[in-house]
């Protein structure tokens, strides 16, 4: 199997992390992979806030109180969309979703665990993250990805389900 398929089939949401720090080089590789995601009309609306400071990670937790896993994460990336024109509002969810998936696959490829914490479209979470991190009015937080070296292993379940596939029409 190719390395790409192996990464797709073995990546899991990791919620428990070791104390090992994530290097600047690894973080830059992860962010570069995110920026190589496909983007409608090549708008690339994504913007990233890298959060490493413990008190800033705590700010995310205060907005998303059910994400206690951030207590042990070594970093988080807040993925945002910036709307420079109304055209940017058309596909920002898909664009940022693709960037998040690339980010998580790159982390996995580097041996770093991740989990995607949703923000958009929940208004309370959007406003909380925007306020806590000083986002400009034309920037909307889409999601948060917690990062850290895994302190847990997850099984590789079989997810292929032929009954969910239709050919030519429903």
Mean model confidence by pLDDT: 95
CATH topology annotation: NADH Oxidase
Order of helices and strands: HHEHEHEHE
Q: Report the CATH C-level class.
A: Alpha Beta
Please summarize the sheet with the most strands: 4 strands, antiparallel
State Rg: 17 Å
Proportion of beta-strand residues: 15-25%
How many domains in all? 1
What this model shows, in words?
With 170 residues, this protein is of the alpha+beta class. It has a single domain, classed as NADH Oxidase, CATH 3.40.109. Helices cover 34% and strands 18% of the residues. The chain contains five helices and four strands. It has helices spanning 3-10, 24-35, 54-63, 92-109, 123-132; strands at residues 46-51, 75-82, 113-118, 139-148. It has a four-stranded antiparallel beta sheet with strand order 1-2-4-3, sandwiched between helices. Helix 2 packs antiparallel against helix 4. The longest helix has 18 residues, at 92-109. The chain starts with a helix and ends in a 22-residue tail after the last strand. 29% of the residues are buried.
């Amino acid at each position: 199997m190719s390395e790409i398929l192996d990464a797709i089939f073995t990546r899991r949401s990791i919620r428990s992390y070791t104390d090992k720090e994530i290097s600047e080089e690894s973080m830059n590789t992860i962010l570069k992979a995110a920026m190589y995601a496909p983007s409608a009309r090549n708008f690339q609306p994504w913007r990233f806030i890298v959060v490493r400071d413990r008190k800033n990670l705590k700010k995310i937790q205060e907005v998303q109180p059910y994400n206690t896993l951030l207590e042990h994460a070594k970093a988080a990336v807040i993925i945002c969309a910036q709307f420079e024109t109304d055209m940017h509002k058309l596909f920002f969810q898909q664009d940022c979703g693709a960037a998040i998936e690339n980010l998580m696959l790159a982390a996995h490829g580097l041996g770093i665990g991740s989990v995607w914490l949703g923000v958009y479209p929940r208004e309370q979470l959007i406003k909380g993250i925007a306020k806590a991190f000083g986002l400009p009015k034309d920037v909307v937080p889409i999601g948060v990805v917690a990062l850290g070296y895994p302190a847990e292993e997850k099984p590789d379940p079989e997810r292929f389900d032929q009954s969910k596939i239709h050919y030519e029409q429903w």
